[in-house]
Amino acid sequence: MINLVWLVPLIPLLGFVINGLGRNTFSKNLIGFIGSGVILISFVISIGIFLALGSDAVKSHEIFLFDWISAGSLKIPLSFLVDPLSAIMLLIITGIGFLIHIYSIGYMHDDEGFGKFFSYLNLFIFFMLLLVLGSNYIVMFIGWEGVGLCSYLLIGFWFTNSSYAAAAKKAFVMNRIGDLGFLIAVFLIFTTFGSVEFAKVFPLAGNMLPGNSTVALITLLLFVGACGKSAQIPLFTWLPDAMAGPTPVSALIHAATMVTAGIYMIARSNVLFDLAPVVQHVIAIIGLATAVLGAVIAMTQTDIKKVLAYSTVSQLGYMFLGLGVGAYNGSFFHVITHAFFKALLFLCAGSVIHAMHHEQDMRHMGGLRKKLPVTFITMLIGTIAISGLPPFSGFFSKDEILAHVYEHNKVMWAIAVFTAFLTAFYMFRMIFLTFFGSYRGTHHAEEKIHESPSSMTFPLIVLAVLSAVGGIIGIPEALGGHHWLSGWLSPVIPHHAGAEDFATEYMLMAVSVIGVIIAIIIAYFKYVKQNHVPVADESKRSVLAEVSYHKFYIDEIYDIVIRRPLDAISGVFYRVFDKKIVDGIVNGLGWSTSEASKGVRLLQSGNVGFYIFMMVAGIISLLLYTYLSL
Amino acid sequence: MNIIITIVVTALAVLYAGLFKATKALLPLTLVGLLVALGFCVTAWDTNTIYYGMMQMNNFAIAFSSLLILGTAFIFLLTENYFAKDSENVAEYYTLILFALSGGVMMVSYTNLSMLFIGLEIMSVSSYILAGIRKNNFASNEASLKYFLMGAFSTGFLLFGITLIYGATGSFSLGAINSYLVGNYKMVSPLFYPGVILMMIGMCFKVGAAPFHFWTPDVYEGSPSLITTFMSTVVKTAAFAAFIRIFAGTFAPLHDFWMPPLMVIVCLTLFIGNVTALFQKNFKRMLAYSSISHVGYLLFSLITLTSTSNNNVLLYTAAYTFASITAFAVLILVKQKTGGDDFESFNGLGKRNPLAALALTVAMLSLAGIPLTGGFMGKYLMFLNVMNQYQIYLVAFAILNALVGFYYYLRVVVAMYFKEGADVLLETPVQYKVVLILSVIITVILGVYPSVILNLI
Amino acid sequence: MGTSVFYLVAFLSIFFSLMVIFAKNPVHSVLYLIVTFFTFTVHYILLNAQFLAVVNFIVYMGAIMVLFLFVLMLLNLNKDNEPLKSGLVKVVGIVAGCCLVVTLIGSLKATAASDPLVLQNVNLGLVKNLGKELFGPFMLPFELSSILLLTAMVGAVLLTKKEKV
Amino acid sequence: MGNITQDLQGVPLNHYIWLSAIIFTIGVIGVLTRRNAIVIFMSVELMLNAVNLLLTAFSVHSNDPSGQVFVFFIMALAAAEVAVGLSIIVMVYRNTQSTDINVLNRLKW
Amino acid sequence: MEQVLLLLIFLPLVAALITAFTGNAAKHVAMVFALASLAITAAIACQFTPDASKQFVVNLPWIQSLGINFHAGIDGISLITVLLTNVLVPIIILASYQSDYKKPASFFALILFMQAGLLVVFTAMDAFLFYIGWEAALIPIYFICAIWGGKDRVRVNMKFFVYTIGGSLFMLLGIIYLYLQNPAHNFDIQAFYQLSLDPAQQGWIFWSFFIAFAIKMPVFPFHTWQPDTYTEAPAGGTMLLSGIMLKMGIYGVIRWLLPIVPAGVQDWGTTAIVLSVIGIVYASLIAFTQKNAKRLVAYSSIAHVGLISAGIFALNTQGMQGAMIQMLSHGINVVGLFFVLDIISSRLKTNTISELGGIAKVAPKLAIAFLIIVLGTVALPGTNGFIGEFLLLMGVYQFNIWAVVFAGLTIIFGAVYMLRMYQHVMLGKTNELTIGFEDIRGTETLVLVIICALIIVLGVYPKPILHLSEASVQQLLEQVNQKLTSVK
């Protein structure tokens, strides 16, 4: 079964090809069927692989396909690695991917680019699978960039809107910045370890001492790559903009799968990261900062998808925080639960948007819970899950990270917990603004609001269930579980036994749960009881709110600090340096020759007397030479 | 000897034919005479006959004579109706050209300075006259007088040089002079050195090297185009052959003495020729300047004397001769139709007369020294020889000049192909076609398979 | 008389040749030139080059100079109407000439003492001796110089003949 | 005659060279300073004669008749040149009514 | 079997002569001959044993007295470039099918003539022959660009011509020098390899060759002829220039510079890399704000070639192999880019980016093809561009990490300007100019399908190509290192 793993990415690729070629000729049903069907097949195979791996004593299988690149000592095969980590990722990608495909059949039904959309989604799944299956950094890099491409294509799906097209480009370029880091890290790995194969690199790294500066550089660069893909400071601004894409895309790519690639990569390379405590520290700080920043910005956003986007940024920050403190399991656990509930949230938001006829501003919503009951319930489940209330999945994963952070650094823990409160606040703010109170749009529009078709609600329900119970795979021992996940992952990620006793753990849980509840209550009072509605764009806000609403002006800062200077340099280089100096020298040579020509030709004055005089001058000099040389 | 006799007899026959108004017979007669002379050249190959100690028909002389005769024949092919509209004394023109040719043959075969002198003067005096044959044309008059005055002046220096050499060695014979040099290598008479320099000045004037080149552009421009063709190809080749014959042969032991000033002359010549040509608006005048620059490249062969110098000069002059003939032939065609000889007159020639345009393009590429043309091989050999002596800076300088050359040679190509001109078709007379096609073929053969004449001498 | 004859004649040669180039009237120039050539004839006699002396006398003074005079008269140039070159050009010309003579003589190393000229064979410049030379080793150039003269003849006729237009 | 040549025997060769060089240079100066084509041409003749004299002197010095033969050739050339040169000047005069070389400056640059 | 190389070289020449007289049917005739050449190349590639040896060697005496022989052969490095030439020429001819060139016979004849010159360059084992081919390839392209080019073509092409030929004259100087140093007095490449020159001499030779190659590629600061020429040239000319001709410079460096003057490379290679890297960043930055799409691609080409050059001078297998594959990839990609731009400009008469927009809406097929080509250009993994750039960057990395940091900016900058161009040309709203844009048809589709297929196939399975050149590249590097150690 495991040897059939190449089918898992291949089938979506086939789906891409078939749908891509037939996008204009096939009926929408057929396209939807093919598009989702291939993912389902992959999912089924993935389950098979998962089960086979579970029953197999050997936990790591490398499936060699063909030699891809070889140059000198560099040999890069195209081969897949099946181990517990990738097997779980396979399940998440194909599973959630399948649900989102189903959802998309309904969501995109009226779009003229239906076929294109499905083919892109299939392509994305293919690349994502490549990313997680790659047995070396380069194959991972194909998937890494490939998903970036699909992200680009899907963000710019409605490309006639030029700001969407710009958002797509931004996403791609920001990812590219990270990718350069990744690439250089790969070069370093190659020169340090002589290979880019996981199976060769990690054992060698295991023999090294912590604090090795080369490894520190490698991990730092890898982290830069992860920053780009997983939207960490300073490369996070593309993610909110990426909401330009259709909502299923936001759910699949920009919440559940692609953006977690960075975490996957770091978790995969945990051997290296463990050798570089300094870098881990950096990761933790940046993760924490990102978490706070995302949460703060999310508090004031009015676009329902933007709230979720910043929430994603914030949650990703959490995961990095976890990675930074060595809680690979916790982070990965959070990746899984986050995939469930964030996909759910986005899909619910999509359902709302679908119902509202592509209205995304929460200021024009309100009181939708009666009109969209399924959406409301499922979204509420998702919200609770992300807020971290037990026994929903988010609670367990977030708590595991928090516990490790506490163990690592108390200040960080405090900030992280505070961020969790903020998370609860803005998530419930969203729920309250959307589903509670009274409808704030036009009456005419209100009549058209209706619950989404079953193809859309079915995935919602499935995901809601997963969000609710997903935590089961990682119930900590403190709560009587035995953390199945960390056991499963132990061949890849060595389990760090928690030094904390259960009492501390209970205390931590209590603090976070109580805080979250308080945050929810505050939100309730503010947005339900007081019926507070965010003000229009033009009106005055407090300074903090203003800064938060404008996303800390980071886009503007980037614009001023990076883009404009580069454009200015470009202009100067082109108009002044290239045209005037470099080309000017070349043209100047030509010009001076022709000027010399103008001068020299005056010698030819037409006057015989002058000619003879010149000749005589020449003769005199030659005779002088003769005189002197004798 | 047979060669000179044939040429002179042909000249006289033509003169008499003219007397009897047999204008139709002139060209065939001339060509037959030239072919016979060429035949004598071929049969004389490898015989190495010495005539009275004055002329030596060695392979060098024969090869250059053949080149001169061939070039003259090509030029005669271009004479159709050319002189007739100027004068009725066409026969005299033919005669003068043939006399000049006979002078040229003497210049390439002399072994005595008196022969050099006589040959040179026959050629020069004929050229003075030929330059002025458009009697009512002011430019032609001016060209003739300028050429004459400066030519006579420079002859004075040449003679002074010959005199000093005679004073030093007591002989006019090249062999005697050479053996004097070899015999008294350490104590050459002080008269000898200025003699060499003054001879060099005289020869530089004849070949048109700076700063003794001033007559070239004016005379070339003012003379009738056909005569310019003759002067810039046959006369120049003969003068250069004479130059190399004495300097590379007889004066070789003093190479260290006369080489440095010659190098300065080469640099000046290259610079002035190329740089001035750059600015010209008149195609003919541009060719005049370009001919100066070619002298600069040719003189490379004197800067480094190797066993192959003679061959290299032969190849270079052959390539140069045929490319120039092509260029002038097209120029004459264009001038006859449009009345102008500046670059604009060539506009759109690519459309109006593809054959002429193609031939001119090949000629220009050859003059510029683009591979696969004879001109490249010539330049290459010159560079090769000079590099052999590691005078890299000289070659680098020459290369920079060649670069300037590309620019002005391409200008006419640009005019022909890339600019729109009047939509008048240009007819090409059959003889012109023959000349153009043959020249192009020769140019390409020299470029692709130079071995044909590379080991001739 | 000693060698002073030579120096006297030499002085006259230089003097008259200077007069040739400084005379304003071209006709005077020609006349001075004839005198100069006469001094040259004397030089040839001094050198015992009798053949040359005669040829110089006949060809140069008799034919060539008369031709000059003839043309001057024909073109009616006997007035001193030649627009003079500017003083600067003259000065520059003379300076250049001085430089030339200095460098020429200098480069010839002619300032050093040298052998006196000794006539070893009194028959050297006699017609008989030169005739043998001319029709012996120098026959070829002698014959070929006829081409030169023929060329000149054809050319002169060609250039001066009026065309029927 | 014999006496004259006997007297001559004291003149150093160098003095002939001096004389020739000076007269040659005078010819050059004439060419440089005059504008009348005929006078210029006369100056050139002066130069040629200087050469002739020197050749003769060398011929005597080296007791070799060929120098004097060469002088003969130079004279032939001079005759030919004069014929051609004067006809050119006449031809130019017909067109320009002048023998001033400065009139001849249409061909330049 | 050896004669097949003669056939390969002279077939285009004969074809050019025939094509010149075929009038309006020229394109078909040219196509047939180009395909025949391609078939011969394919046969050669099949017969080729991928070891380091020279195969199909032809060695005929030519100008014997000067030590010049018609000595040509194919090894892995040559084969790649020959492949490039003979694959791209049919593509370029096909791409010119729907363009309306006046005097098509001359146009296609010149292309074929140039092909012959290029093949000589890529197979020559005699320096003189190499030089002849080098110049012979220049003449036709000059005429192509100057006859069928844009408004400013005369001035621009004059500059191009004089500039490039100026460089090559200095190379000629170097070749002559080597010839004179060679005791056997011939131009044989093996003899040149065996010369032992002192480092100072090698330095001079290095520059005399490098300037010629740098101008051809072009490497900063010798590049200023290039954007103008690319912009003014007709599409076919631009494709030839950018697709094949600039590879002459790269090939020259590999074949004639590195093994002959390793000490010169050691002394000056760093300078060359620095210039290349400056060129990468500099050209990329300039490409940011270009208004004309053709000019933008021209600058991008400078950046890409800068990377290739840096990779070569890094002197390691990865860099060299990267250069080999990237030569092929860059050729294909840039031809594709210029072809797409030609399609646009032939329909809309403009290549000004700001005037375009929304073409993807009306021409989805073109949009897809263009996107694939753009992605290939920005080196997305899975496309041909990635293989090359990855290996090149790896090569440069092994030279110096800072070099790769700057060179790697091409990854980012390339994405910025290429996607910016794509965004403004293809995406966004259609305007009144682009609304009537007609999607690709006929041969246009065929050309783009071929190009896209090559991009992906090479990206996914580059091994056959890498395999072809590997042995030769290894041998070459060994040769260089051996000579370097022997000098020490």
How does this structure look, described?
The complex is a heteropentamer of chains A (630), B (457), C (165), D (109) and E (488). Among the domains of chain A are: 276-538, no CATH class; 555-629. Chain A is 72% helix and 3% strand. Chain A is built from 25 helices and two strands. In chain A, strands 1-2 form a two-stranded antiparallel sheet. In chain A, a hairpin with a 2-residue loop joins strand 1 (61-71) and strand 2. The model of chain A has no long low-confidence stretch (mean pLDDT 86). With 457 residues, chain B is mostly helical. Chain B has one domain (2-454). Chain B has 19 helices and two strands. Chain B is globular. The model of chain B has no long low-confidence stretch (mean pLDDT 90). With 165 residues, chain C is mainly alpha-helical. Chain C has a domain at 1-76: NADH-ubiquinone/plastoquinone oxidoreductase chain 6, subunit NuoJ (Four Helix Bundle (Hemerythrin (Met), subunit A)). Chain C contains six helices and no strands. Chain E has two domains: 1-260, no CATH class; 271-479, no CATH class. In chain E, strand 1 (55-63) and strand 2 (68-74) form a beta hairpin. The longest helix of chain E is centred in the C-terminal third of the chain and has 32 residues, at 317-348. Chain E is globular, with a radius of gyration of 21 Å. The model of chain E has no long low-confidence stretch (mean pLDDT 90). Chains C and D meet through helix 1, helix 2, helix 3, helix 4 and helix 5 of C and helix 1, helix 2, helix 3 and helix 4 of D. Chain B: InterPro entries: NADH-Q_OxRdtase_suN/2, ND/Mrp_TM.
Summarize the structure.
The complex is a heteropentamer of chains A (630), B (457), C (165), D (109) and E (488). Chain B is mainly alpha-helical.
Task: Extract low-pLDDT stretches of chain D.
Answer: none
- In CATH, the topology of chain D is named Helix Hairpins
Individual helix count of chain D: 4
Shape of chain B: globular
Please provide the ordered H/E string of secondary-structure elements of chain D: HHHH
**What gap, in angstroms, lies between the N and C termini of chain D?**
57 Å
Which architecture name of chain D does CATH use?
Orthogonal Bundle
Highest-level CATH class of chain D:
Mainly Alpha
| Rg for CA atoms of chain D | 18 Å
Structural class of chain D: mainly alpha
Biggest β-sheet strands, sense, barrel of chain D: none
Defining key terms:
heteropentamer; A: 630 residues; mainly alpha; two-stranded antiparallel ribbon; 72% helix; 3% strand; B: 457 residues; quinone binding (chain C); transmembrane (chain C)
Layout of SSEs?
The complex is a heteropentamer of chains A (630), B (457), C (165), D (109) and E (488).
Chain A: H1 7-21, H2 28-55, E1 61-71, E2 74-82, H3 84-107, H4 114-133, H5 137-155, H6 162-193, H7 198-206, H8 213-229, H9 238-241, H10 247-256, H11 261-268, H12 270-274, H13 277-298, H14 304-324, H15 328-355, H16 373-387, H17 393-408, H18 410-435, H19 443-448, H20 454-469, H21 484-489, H22 502-529, H23 543-549, H24 554-601, H25 608-629
Antiparallel strand pairs in A: 1-2
Chain C: H1 4-22, H2 26-46, H3 50-74, H4 87-108, H5 127-135, H6 139-160
Chain E: H1 3-19, H2 26-47, E1 55-63, E2 68-74, H3 76-95, H4 104-123, H5 127-148, H6 153-181, H7 189-194, H8 199-216, H9 225-232, H10 235-257, H11 262-288, H12 293-313, H13 317-348, H14 359-362, H15 364-377, H16 384-399, H17 401-407, H18 409-426, H19 443-460, H20 463-487
Antiparallel strand pairs in E: 1-2
Helix pairs in contact in E: 1-2, 1-4, 2-3, 2-4, 3-4, 3-10, 3-13, 3-19, 3-20, 4-5, 4-10, 5-6, 5-10, 6-8, 6-9, 8-10, 8-11, 9-10, 9-12, 10-12, 10-13, 11-12, 11-17, 11-18, 12-13, 12-16, 12-18, 13-15, 13-16, 13-19, 13-20, 15-18, 15-19, 16-17, 16-19
